[in-house]
Specification:
five-stranded antiparallel β-sheet; 41% helix; 13% strand; globular
């Protein structure tokens, strides 16, 4: 399968550059854009090779040409039996990865609703850069064989095949988007190729289309109920001095159809919510602004939303906190800014029928006594364009299939499952961060006891290297910075970052520490590769290896290399995220820490040479090449306090700290460069050491008793 990205569109050479002025230049540029668009449309029309699906079946099969909506190819056995349907996730659901780039998986779903096999054919995910082997990703996708797409798609224990494979260790975010792409696409294909036995119409859950806010309003996909303060006061039996102002402006939408759900929630949030429900469950979006909250605060104690409920015919559907997700803002172009928005997951087992009218009832009294009814209703009916007429099948479904289809999804969210599964690692990291916070807050007390401080720091670095690096694989990378930046640009979701608990905890701690102490806390205490360099350099010093001292003038100019590298990676990521991930191989973290040198020899040689240089120049890589250190140094200029103490003799009469600084972050004149300081606190240990600090030596000399300086008189 071939994809054409923006990097493949090369500018044409214009024979006569002098004719590129004025109108001629404009026409030429328009022509180039048209050619590029044509090439993109031609290459984009190339479908995935669904012939891959032949390997998913144990018997000889034939994969026909894809057809229908959504596009899928019938898989037939040699005797003509329909065994299932092959599809491309990109063609069916327009799947994108965590990095915001196309993600394509060729898979096949059987007529019974199980995945016959899956294979990833195109992606631009960062996981191959931060240390996940290609084989691990391929194995994860292949393990969806046997997955029942009719049940909920949350991550559950791996001892039940129908519940799906575990996420790839260290790549839970990418694992989640892959799972969403497979499950959503398979459900769409299966639903479009089979009919529900008890309905003449069904909800269109397959059509992919984006709409703006005005279009959704015009067609009735979003309904509104505005209650003024005067109307509310009349219903509550009270009075209001500003009756014309809004009391609550309530909005309601059935978010199950992709044109409504994706437009309002954004693709990633929409796909995440679909992954939490069964194939026939529904999503209802409620939003509001004004004085009154439709959620209130009672639900936190009551375990249910007491102000709102859905009513359909004689059936009342209570909304549970476990079945809702708070949304920061609506994504549809032109949508208003609402004070609160939430999407509610409505299981099919509740009896809710999304093809029929329903209403939302809102209690304005919030449980208070009132003179009369204070409930308003907002009627809703899905527009006809989102309904598909169906004919009842001639053959009844196999016994037990209906019950399986209606299996409720787990109320436990995916990130909660992952946090619980890694609770012991989370506990260890939480203890580490608590100890480090105590060291930083009480740094004067810690560094005043020199021997204790050096033993504590060495022990902490060993724990960082062994636990965070080799056991937990929690090595932060510049790739994490890029994905965070691109997430902000393309629709930020906290749930994605919560999927990797150790990385989330580390980044949260680093963000706080930057405000208080600068960027050096991570580099000096929590970076496994940085601690590996420092520990190996300490060993080299003990073995008598002579250290190379870089002249400060040259050292100061070499600093900029890492900033240039980071800015280059960031600039390339705006054009090609995959190219940026490849350039991020300048980091040896993946080779030395995550994969423990079990890589191709050029990568191992590169990481080995950096460690070798670190034997002669302490933290050589950290000083001059690390783009992650540069990325952290830029926001670290916002730090709020100056904790490191200095004497007036520092840099004038005494240069001990400058010579002993781990990364040569102290200027010969005594100033500490916060952009380069790794906050190892060695200078503070010197500050309190009576045998090293010149200022303390002078003070001790001045305090010597006069009697000791005067010889005794003869008797």
């Amino acid at each position: 399968m071939t994809y054409l990205n923006a990097a493949m569109a090369q500018p044409c050479l214009i024979p006569d550059m002098r004719m590129a002025a004025g109108k001629i230049e404009t026409i030429a540029l328009q022509g180039l854009r048209a050619v590029a668009a044509l090439l993109l449309s031609i290459c984009g029309a190339q479908a995935a090779d669904l012939g891959i699906a032949t390997k998913f079946f144990s018997e000889p099969v034939t994969v026909e040409r894809p057809e229908g909506a959504p596009p899928a190819a019938i898989v037939r056995a040699a005797d003509g039996r329909v065994l299932g349907y092959a599809f491309s996730s990109l063609d069916v659901s327009g799947s994108v990865g965590y990095a915001g780039r196309p993600l394509d998986i060729v898979a096949a779903v059987t007529s019974e609703g199980t995945i016959a096999g899956a294979e990833i054919v195109a992606h631009e995910e960062p996981i191959l850069v931060i240390g996940i082997p290609r084989d691990a990703l391929a194995a994860y996708v292949a393990n969806f064989r046997g997955f029942d797409v009719r049940a909920g798609a949350t991550l559950k224990p791996a001892d039940e095949l129908a519940r799906g494979p575990h996420a790839v260790a260290g790549a839970t975010i990418t694992s989640t988007v892959i799972r969403d792409a497979i499950v959503r696409s398979a459900r769409s294909v299966l639903r479009s190729r089979s009919n529900a036995p008890d309905r003449t119409t069904r909800l269109d859950r397959e059509t992919l289309r984006r709409s703006n806010w005005q279009s959704l309003l015009a067609e009735g996909a979003v309904q509104r109920r505005l209650v003024s303060r005067g109307e509310a006061a009349k219903m509550l039996g009270t009075q209001d001095s500003e009756p014309e102002k809004p009391f609550i402006d309530l909005w309601l939408a059935l978010a199950t159809p992709p044109p409504i759900g994706e437009s309002l929630l954004g693709q990633r949030t929409y796909e995440s919510e679909l992954g939490k429900i069964g194939p026939e469950d529904d999503l209802v979006l409620i939003g509001a602004t004004g004085l009154y909250s439709f959620k209130g605060t009672e639900w936190r104690q009551a375990g249910a939303f007491t102000r709102i409920e859905l009513v359909q015919g004689s059936r009342t559907i209570r909304l549970k906190p476990s079945d809702h997700t708070a949304i920061e803002s609506l994504h549809a172009a032109g949508a208003p800014e609402l004070r609160e928005v939430a999407v509610f997951r409505i299981p099919q087992s509740s009896g809710f029928d999304s093809t029929k009218p329903f209403r939302l009832d809102l209690d304005l009294s919030a449980g208070a006594a009132r003179s009369g009814p204070a409930v308003i209703s907002l009627e809703y009916r899905i527009p006809e364009r989102y309904l598909i007429a169906t004919a009842p099948p001639s053959v009844a479904p196999p016994a037990g299939k209906t019950a399986a289809t209606a299996a409720p999804a787990s109320t436990q969210t995916l990130w909660q499952d992952i946090w619980w599964a890694r609770r012991y690692e989370i506990g260890v990291l939480g203890a580490m961060l608590s100890v480090l916070a105590a060291i930083l807050i009480f740094q004067d007390t810690v560094t005043a006891h020199g021997v204790f401080y050096y033993r504590l720091r060495t022990g902490y670095m060993l724990l960082t290297l062994v636990f965070l690096g080799f056991i937990a694989n929690a090595q932060l990378s510049v790739v994490n910075v890029l994905t965070f930046i691109h997430a902000l640009l393309s629709g930020f979701r906290w749930e994605l970052f919560l999927l990797d608990p150790l990385v989330f905890m580390l980044w949260s701690f680093v963000a706080l520490s930057i405000l208080f102490w600068g960027r050096g806390v991570f580099c000096g205490w929590l970076c496994p590769f940085g601690t590996l360099q420092e520990l190996t350099n300490q060993l080299a010093r003990r073995l008598g290896i002579k250290q190379i001292e870089i002249p400060f003038g040259l050292h100061e100019r070499l600093w900029m290399i890492k900033y240039v590298v980071f800015l280059g990676i960031l600039a390339i990521s705006l054009r090609s995220i995959l190219g940026a991930f490849q350039l991020a191989e300048v980091e040896p973290f993946k080779t030395a820490i995550t994969m423990k040198f079990m890589r191709e020899w050029p990568f191992g040689l590169y990481a080995g040479l950096l460690l070798l240089a670190g034997l002669f120049i302490e933290r050589f890589y950290c000083r001059y090449l690390c783009p992650l250190g540069a990325a952290l140094a830029i926001p670290a200029r916002m730090r709020m306090f100056e904790w490191l103490k200095r004497y007036r003799e520092c840099g004038a009469e005494c240069h001990v700290c400058a010579r002993r600084c781990t990364v040569q972050a102290i200027h010969p004149l005594g100033q500490i460069n916060p952009n380069e300081c790794i906050y190892c606190l060695k200078c503070q240990a010197n500050y309190f050491d009576n045998d090293i600090c010149l200022h303390l030596k002078k003070r001790a000399a001045r305090r010597q008793p006069l009697a000791q300086a005067t010889p005794p008189r003869n008797s």
